[in-house]
Amino acid sequence: MKLISFNVNGVRATTKKTFFEDFQTMNPDVLCLQETKANDAQVQEALQNISGYHIYSSSAVRPGYSGTALISKEKPLSVTFGLGIEEHDQEGRVITAEYEKFFLVNTYVPNSGSELARLDYRETWDADLLKHLQNLEKTKPVVLCGDLNVAHQAIDLANPKSNYNKSAGYTQREIDGLSTFISSGYKDSFRHFYPEVVKYSWWSARFNSRAKNVGWRIDYFLVSENFLPHVKDAFILNEIMGSDHCPVGIIIE
To answer: Where does residue 249 rank: exposed (0-12), middle (13-18), buried (19+ CB within 10 A)?
Structure first.
């Protein structure tokens, strides 16, 4: 199976670009989207040209904000939305799909925001998401994918020194949050295969950052340690445009 995650920065906007051609090129078994910025009806309408897939979406109460979607060739055994915590479930940030051998959790982690206004909330979110994964893992292994809104190590962003403890996504508290996932047994698949490769998945829209490759790696596939032997490769598709992020993925068998 080829599993791909893509923060599309607006599903209605990206589908007016090269999304469908890119979809054919990527040929995913499952494509997880983040930041759909649309309600469920609008997501279905935007993706109506996709046939042969089952489409699920979770939308924020606030119009045009956040949101996730899951596009799956195989119909999941079950699909659930949110974390079961009202504080978190107003923004459409989690879809959990159960397959025969694993759970796939698609998430769009809250950004700590300008001046780190949501950093405390972000820490609560991380802790509750980890509990969700650990609860699922009592049944079967877990694959977590999505925009986790954190660069874990200095290698994961172009300018670590100038951003450290100043910019959302590279504070020690956020780094420690992701470290807790990893120390709890959820392995960063890209770093597992490519420990020293410099590759990014998001670029600021300012300063011609993408052309200069001044980016951040903030999109991930984290995999239960006991499921890692089933993961054959991980990849980042820098050549796919249409968003300020690019798709990331893994191959499993």
So the answer is: buried
68-125 residue pLDDT tens? 999 999 999 999 999 999 999 999 999 999 999 999 999 999 999 999 999 999 999 9
Fold entry, domain 2-252: Deoxyribonuclease I; Chain A (3.60.10)
pLDDT digits (tens, 9 = 90+) for 20-35: 999 999 999 999 999 9
26 phi and psi angles, rounded to 5 deg? -70, -35
| Bridge partner list, 34 | 7, 68
Classify the C-alpha dihedral 206-211-217-218 as positive or negative.
positive
**pTM here?**
0.98
Residue type, 34: Q
From residue 105, give the alpha-carbon distance in Å to each of 33, 68, 75, 182, 185: 11, 11, 15, 16, 15
Residue in 87, 95, 37, 106 with CA at minimum distance from that of residue 67: 37
Active site residues: 108, 147
